[in-house]
């Protein structure tokens, strides 16, 4: 039977939503987790809850736009648990709006968090993976990149850029040392809409999430499935959406 026991997993954006659900599920299944986010009080509370339930958890305050913070996250995992087997790049924002609104600050923020944040994670984790002889990079992308909708052009572009980086890393890692998995959620009940600047887009997104959204645990199960596979199996991409989502 496949198992997560002994896996050491670091997760960005773990203060809520998909990141929190992933941390809780992986810990329940035997992995040691390192939760990271900007909100220290929230990840500390989640980690404490995991430990009280018999799991192993540590925390690290991280702003993914800062390369040194991701290096500290990797170091925390190694210092606390001896190695890092998986990095889950989950932190992301979506201040989406029509291109005609010219929200250049929002565009830059999405590039910094969604794309540069992932690259910072890769730069931090890859040397450790290579030194260990194994490692797994999991990134939460989006179905928004598969079918681009109005107001989501830049957001989709950042997610598709991450998808491209994953494929490039996969092609560079056919020696079997590093595995990559891109997971693309559809409507998931999270607070992602809070980062949307346009009030009309934000309200419509919340309505869609309420009407058809599925729990973050659905994505967490996909993460668990990908990382529990034996070393000779790589799950390249998974799409997780509500059955009622077009």
Automatic annotation (TrEMBL):
| InterPro entries documented for this protein | KR_dom, NAD(P)-bd_dom_sf, Sc_DH/Rdtase_CS, SDR_fam
Presence of keyword Aminoacyl-tRNA synthetase: no
Q: Which UniProt keywords apply?
A: Oxidoreductase
Every Ketoreductase domain range: 7-191
The family annotation for this protein states:
Belongs to the short-chain dehydrogenases/reductases (SDR) family.
Name of this chain's protein: SDR family oxidoreductase
């Amino acid at each position: 039977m496949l198992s997560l026991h002994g896996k050491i997993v670091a997760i960005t954006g773990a203060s809520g939503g998909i990141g929190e659900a992933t941390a809780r599920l992986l810990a329940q299944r035997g992995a040691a987790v390192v939760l990271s986010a900007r909100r220290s009080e929230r990840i500390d509370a989640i980690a404490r809850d995991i430990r009280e339930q018999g799991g192993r958890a540590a925390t690290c305050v991280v702003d993914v736009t800062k390369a040194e913070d991701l290096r500290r996250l990797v170091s925390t995992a190694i210092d606390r648990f001896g190695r890092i087997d998986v990095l889950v790049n989950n932190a992301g924002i979506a201040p989406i709006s029509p291109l005609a609104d010219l929200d250049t600050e929002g565009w830059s923020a999405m590039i910094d968090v969604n794309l540069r944040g992932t690259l910072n994670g890769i730069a931090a984790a890859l040397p450790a993976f290579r030194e260990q002889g194994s490692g797994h990079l999991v990134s939460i992308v989006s179905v928004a990149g598969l079918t681009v909708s109005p107001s989501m052009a830049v957001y989709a572009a950042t997610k598709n850029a991450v998808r491209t980086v994953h494929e490039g890393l996969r092609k560079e890692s056919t020696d079997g040392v590093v595995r990559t998995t891109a997971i693309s959620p559809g409507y998931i009940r999270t607070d992602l809409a809070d980062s949307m600047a346009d009030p009309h887009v934000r309200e419509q997104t919340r309505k869609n999430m309420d009407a058809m959204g599925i729990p973050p645990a659905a994505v967490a199960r996909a993460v668990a499935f990908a990382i529990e596979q034996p070393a000779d199996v790589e799950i390249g991409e998974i799409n997780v959406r509500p059955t009622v989502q077009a």
